[in-house]
Amino acid sequence: MTQPKEKVVAYFYDEEVGNYTFGGGNPMRPHRARMVYSLLNSYGVTRNMIVHRPEPRSFEGLTEYHADDYIDFLRNVTPGNAEDHLNQLRRFNMGQVGDVDCPVFDGVYEYCQLYSGGSVNGATLVAQGKADLALNWSGGMHHAKKAEASGFCYVNDIVLCILELLKGFGRVLYVDIDIHHGDGVEEAFYLTDRVMTVSFHKYGEFFPGTGAIDDIGYGRGKHYTVNVPLKDGMDDDNYKFMFEPIMTKVMEMYQPGAIVMCCGADSLSGDKLGCFNLSMEGHSNCIEFMSKFNVPMVVLGGGGYTLRNVARCWTYETGRLLGLDLPDQLPEQALHEYNYYLDTFSLRIQTSNMKNMNTREELEDIKMRVMEHLRHLPPVPSVQMAHMPPAHQGPSQPEEDPDARGGGQIAEEMRRTRRGDESDEEGDPPGRARRDAPAPSPSGAAAEKGTAGGEGAARPAPVEATQPQNPSLAPASLSTSEALNSRPPSQPAAPTTTTTAPTSTAPAALPQGAAPQGDAAAPVQKEESKVSPSEAAPPKSTAGPAPPPGPGPMQDDPNALTGSSSQPAEAGRAPAAVNQQGGGTGEQAMEVDPSSSQQQPQQQQQQQAGGEGPVAMDTAPPGDSGTANGATVNGADPSAAGAPAAPSQPEGGGAGQQQ
User: What's the pTM?
Assistant: First the structure.
């Protein structure tokens, strides 16, 4: 056995796990995981390993082993409705806070998701070869059954961890040095030879009451279950006398591909519920001994109910696994953060003068019987060639860069809208196509329009790029003049109308650059105040035919200035909002495509003939009805006004359309 030069160590920790409490004086305190990390950080040990935040295990992930109805009950039960499910509480071995070992406390399901997620994530890294050692001190809940809580354990994260390791390894060894028998893990793998379970525990009138030396498995799993029952007062020397020979034989006969250890600290001297007399060195010696075999390991927590000693033990063992011998004097930072260590101000603990009830003859007899069981093991079991199941996958979202504004380039590319997409300024380059984005619902588009033009509609509302129903209708950010002049005259387009309330007078002009608000385009007065009253179109009722066309540049659409419409909004389409001055908004209405310069003299002659002053608007080909990209000006239907339907916009043209 040779010590590797350098190990990749993954440490899983989430500070939220320390916020949960069993309540009612329950000796189980999830807060101990936070104390361990605080102590490791005070010693500077966290710089020597990769700290990961565990991904909470999903419902589907938890039910890879546990029963669906049991996990569903955990997900829905709360202290407020627990009394309504008394039958299920008895069925799943749970109860009210203060009455049972496994109470229903606030956030019990989220707590199980966190600690089980850390164990599975660690197993994934080890199975993929990305880590040699994974640590999750908040895990190790070895009593939980398939459909039952037991011994402060709700979800058996150890079983889930082993199942994940079996996706990459043919054989997995489980070693339990918690003072309580690991009955939940043994029960899960009692009939298989792909997992060997070895447990050193107190036996005889002690929870959970299982783990006799003759419990060796059944069927294909016979002799792949090893139990080493012990009595009170077990000390370091006798524990080493039993542990090292047995585990050497197990490694020789079984040759696992990975090792999972449950390192409950309740076997230490002075534990509230334990009755062993081990020191931190004796407890840590078991983990160090297994690490010398250079087999990938996942190290988990377990029991431990004297908080100050649990934090000390797991901190010391983390350092030993990293090849560090931490000084006995606790750092000042640790003493200031928590006052649990004021009893001795030191890392290591002292054992008591407790009498050892295990005689050397009894221990020798137990060891020989265990060796006899191991002698019957067949050669290393082979695994039939089969397709390897997919490993656990993390979230698909990209990891944001905390040092970059907005999360970095990858996070920026994953966003639906980006900076500049909603810009409709004059300085934007003409013909710049909008990036694709998921199509919003009509209600979402209306809400977006209502919020984008806040503060007096000082900014134009962003136009969401949607998937057009007609293939010839494509979103773009061209000006309306460019759109109208670039359309082929041979492609007809289905008009889209909107419904607005009729008005009798022309409304006040919006500020320059403002966008219409609401579900339909609001009527906008012309920017120039030089329009004669005789040229203003009369108000029109929402019902009845449109009047004949009048003079002026807007002669094809007499309802353009009123915004009225006689056609209801088309079902399934977001209302189109287009400026009556050619579809542009604000300063963009001044843009004139160079290709339409030959039509400007004719347009000016029409304005002079009608007695109208200069009006800022985009030019359109003669005979155009004022439609752009299938949407009418201010929602007027060309067919209602007696004008022919406008040809459709080619792909990439037609600004001023909102869908």
Answer: 0.61
